Amino acid sequence: MRTIARETVFKILFSRQFSESDGAELKHALYKAEKLTAEDIGYADRILSIIEEHKDEFTEIIDRHSHAFPEKRIYPADRSILLIGLAELLYCADIPAKVTFNEAANIASKYSSERSASYISGILSSVGQKGEGNVQAD
User: Is the whole model's pTM more than 0.85, yes or no?
Assistant: First the structure.
């Protein structure tokens, strides 16, 4: 199920914020522990690749849409969730924006806070409304 794959990507991104390593060992261990299917691994690798390629762009977008905090001051869990949401929203036309918003809020509620869920939803919705990047209309 893609929800588990998203949570796995979240864990990888979160851990990378505290380590100099690229996280390859952790990534493979999590893929195995979560029993990700080949399709889930493909999704996870695709999202991680998009984030790696567009990290500077995503940082600028977060700074532009986050009125409360610059990207560098955002709680690491929230930053990780935003990166996943932006990757899906801007570069994955096959994932409906509504799914991205809902999944991001759910991950935030599980791993961060209800307040974070609203904050993340607000930023992603703002990006979607501005039509940045490859955002597709639903």
Answer: yes
Residue 32: in which H helix or E strand, if any? helix 24-33
> In which region does residue 133 sit, left (phi positive, over 0), alpha (psi from -120 to 50) or beta (all else)?
left
Alpha-carbon span 89 to 75, nearest angstrom: 21
SS3 (DSSP) at 89:
helix
The CA distance from 92 to 97, in Å, is: 9
Digit-by-digit pLDDT tens for the chain (138 residues) are: 699 999 999 999 999 999 877 778 999 999 999 999 999 999 999 999 999 999 999 999 999 998 777 777 899 999 999 999 999 999 999 999 999 999 999 999 999 987 899 999 999 999 988 666 555 443
**Three-point CA angle 110, 134, 137, nearest 5°:** 75
